[in-house]
Design brief:
Distance between the termini: 34 Å
Helix content: 25-40%
Bound molecules: nicotinamide-adenine-dinucleotide
Structural class: alpha/beta
Number of helices: 12
Strand order of the largest sheet: 11-10-9-12-13-15-14
């Protein structure tokens, strides 16, 4: 069983899909590990560290030759893995809806592509969930990015020269990233409030010491759909939410938006008029910018200024903390493959619940129902 670890080629991608820790663990299962030279450099892992852990370090062609499983953070350009053997697994974040042409090419090449972001949200798969592990650190980094752009302090400070007041931080969307953003902003001493369409988050917001801001008494108020994900809200709800948020946003210094709806463009939560109501020097971080954006005027990959308010739209926020996000991503992959390891075969054998959810291609065809409808 040979496992290949690729060096990421996408622009701005600094993460790597295996660490010396997971290399050792895979070897412990009986696998042979081959890591592409330079794969870990942008995540602060030298080739020598992989070699010390027992991997061979080589160029892409050598790493791919005879590999049974190929690990990546993002899906590789199909041409760049042309040497992979038929039937090899490719486990990575494959962005199946956004990169459909690639998925077709993996099928044509006989690769069995496994999209880690399609991991079902069930208890036993929590430790395999790349969306959670990466979002968690994105939520943390969003607060630091906001603090870096903000020309004022977060905590209240009483100094001999006078008092500095605490920053008011509002988190919109309280999933994994939003919860971590609340906790981080609280640690920095800000006054934090938060909102979501899923009423279950109210308790979570309170338990982190923040103030919930929620639409009440509107039809279709429950926004929780399957798998704990949000659903799109009624027009009446959206109007009530916009009114509530307008009054609140005008008093905020920092707003962090994280709202996503699976398979749909991100919901628009902040309008240009609402941005104009904020005081100059305020900062908005749009973590959903690559999914279409929660904030009017946010630009992916840029920090723009509108009405004196900075709107931060960094791409690939997890990659901005590449050492830690790589460590977690690598563990997600190890937890996934090791959970299915068949000792007699010396290889993983997937069950239907997880295998069918994440498998995009098999036997030369696209097989995932989410891509076939
Ligand atoms: P997500 O990234 O899909 O969305 C982020 C947040 O935005 C969600 O809380 C969503 O409700 C919210 N949102 C959507 N539309 C909104 C709107 N119009 N206004 C305000 N907020 C809006 O969410 P996520 O981080 O993936 O988490 C979703 C849920 O899944 C959470 O309850 C999380 O704890 C749960 N989860 C479970 C597992 C598991 O059991 N394996 C793993 C990860 C997450």
């Amino acid at each position: 069983m040979k496992i290949a670890v690729l060096r990421e080629q996408a622009a701005g991608e600094r993460r790597v899909a295996a660490t010396p820790e997971t290399v050792r663990k895979f070897i412990g299962l009986g696998a042979e590990l081959a890591v592409e030279a330079g794969a870990g450099v942008t995540a602060s892992i030298a080739d020598a560290a992989y070699a010390d852990a027992g991997a061979t370090v080589a160029d892409r062609a050598a790493v791919l030759a005879g590999a049974d499983i190929i690990l990546g953070v993002q899906g590789p350009d199909p041409a760049s893995i042309a040497g992979a053997k038929t039937g090899a697994w490719l486990a990575a974040g494959l962005n199946p809806f956004g990169e459909r042409t690639r998925v077709d090419a993996y099928a044509a090449a006989g690769i069995e592509a496994l999209a880690m972001e399609f991991m079902p949200r069930i208890t036993r798969a929590q430790s395999m969930d790349i969306l959670s592990s990466q979002s968690n650190l994105s939520g943390y980094k969003a607060v630091l990015d906001a603090a870096a752009e903000y020309g004022r302090a977060f905590p209240m400070m009483m100094t001999a020269a006078g008092t500095v007041s605490a920053a008011r931080v509002f988190i919109m969307g309280v999933g994994v990233a939003g919860l971590q953003a609340i906790a981080t902003a609280r640690r920095l001493g800000a006054q934090v409030s938060a909102t979501d369409v899923r009423s279950a988050t109210k308790e979570q917001i309170l338990s982190l010491g923040a103030k919930p801001i929620f639409v009440e008494n509107v039809a279709g108020i429950e926004g929780e759909g399957s798998g704990g994900y949000a659903t799109e809200m009624s027009e009446e709800y959206q109007k009530a939410q916009a009114e509530l948020v307008s009054g609140h946003i005008a008093k905020q210094d920092i707003v962090i938006t994280t709202a996503l709806i699976p398979g749909r463009p991100a919901p628009r939560l902040i309008s240009d008029a609402q941005i104009a109501s904020m005081r100059p020097g305020s900062v908005i971080v749009d973590l959903a910018v690559e999914a279409g954006g929660n904030v009017e005027g946010a630009v992916a990959g840029e920090v723009v200024e509108r009405h004196g308010v900075k709107i931060v739209g960094h791409r690939n926020v997890p990659s901005r903390l590449a050492a830690d996000t790589s460590a977690l991503f690598a563990r997600n992959l190890f937890n996934f493959l090791s959970a299915f390891w068949d000792k007699d075969k010396g290889a993983p054998v997937l069950d239907a619940e997880i295998g069918d959810a994440i498998r995009l291609t098999q036997g030369g065809k696209v097989v995932n129902p989410r891509l076939l409808t």
